[in-house]
Automatic annotation (TrEMBL):
UniProt feature coiled coil, ranges: none
Entry's Gene Ontology molecular function annotations: ATP binding; ATP hydrolysis activity
Organism for this UniProt entry: Rhizorhabdus histidinilytica
Upper lineage: Bacteria, Pseudomonadati, Pseudomonadota, Alphaproteobacteria, Sphingomonadales
Protein's name in the database: ABC-2 type transport system ATP-binding protein
InterPro entries: AAA+_ATPase (IPR003593), ABC_transporter-like_ATP-bd (IPR003439), ABC_transporter-like_CS (IPR017871), ABC_transporter_ATP-binding (IPR050763), P-loop_NTPase (IPR027417)
Record's keyword terms, sorted: ATP-binding, Nodulation, Nucleotide-binding, Transport
Family from the record: Belongs to the ABC transporter superfamily.
Entry annotated with the keyword Transport: yes
Residues in ABC transporter domain copies: 27-256
Pfam families to which the protein is assigned, alphabetical: ABC_tran (PF00005)
Amino acid sequence: MAGRPGHPPLHRSPTAAMPPAMSDAAISIRGLSKIYKGGKQALFDVDLDIPRGQIFGLLGPNGAGKSTTINILAGLVNKTAGQVSIWGFDIDKDPRNAKASIGIVPQEIVFDPFFTPRETLDNQAGFYGIPKNRRLTDELLRAVHLDDKADAYARSLSGGMKRRLLVAKAMVHSPPVLVLDEPTAGVDVELRQQLWEYVRELNASGVTVVLTTHYLEEAEELCDRIAIINHGRVIANEPTRELVGKAQEKAVSVTVDRDLDKAPDAICFEKVELKGSRTLVITYSKDKVNAGEVLAAVQKNGLGIVDVSTQEADLEDVFLALTRAG
């Protein structure tokens, strides 16, 4: 999903002022808490910095506090305590510039079905006070591959087209920060790939992207850094590679030289499964033993080793370990 040939993805800021003091954080959160009416506490003293220029993943199970955090950034929910700034602008002291510095793509597909995509983007630009001669409507429609649907009623668009229109709508004021809240929920693989291509291009042009997703393989592939929130608290915040490296369980698949009726056991095996008659899938804790010790234990059971392959831990392993512990 590229913009015009020879042009970078759109990132000009006609509405946002320069921040009062440049810092490394696109979004800075300190001591953020939220208690809803009735006493339910959704966030507990959250501290979080989202670096400028990155694709940042904010992950967590349902009800963890992700949506509350995003709604506070969007100005839809009032915080109970704490400080939040977007692009250097405090959301309480300078709400106008804070809102002008962020675009939100919500989970829900919400816009007037009787407006065309062109009218939808023009109206949204009008809300930000952008003069007609400075609006990016046609460029945005081309960038998200909706220029051929510019004058069709929005209600006639497919689900994937509506998702793309929401991304364009969030970018009408060229914010330096874009938040994507579950943007690929319920869309097909081709659209997902097109959407991520466009997001990467936006990021390459300088837009900081914040992503929430339940597709952990997406987060692992796209994000420079990931924070995990659980029960209203940040339980991890690290570069993606370092976070994945924290997975202590590792699996090795070993093909042996004869048929087995049951899997052998050893003290260094966390778990062992027999796949077929000759393949053992052995899980071990890499902070206690190494692969060589595991293979030696297989040989001590009188088995010859024909083939070995390892199964690397992924973000899902880390996510499940951290959230279960939480």
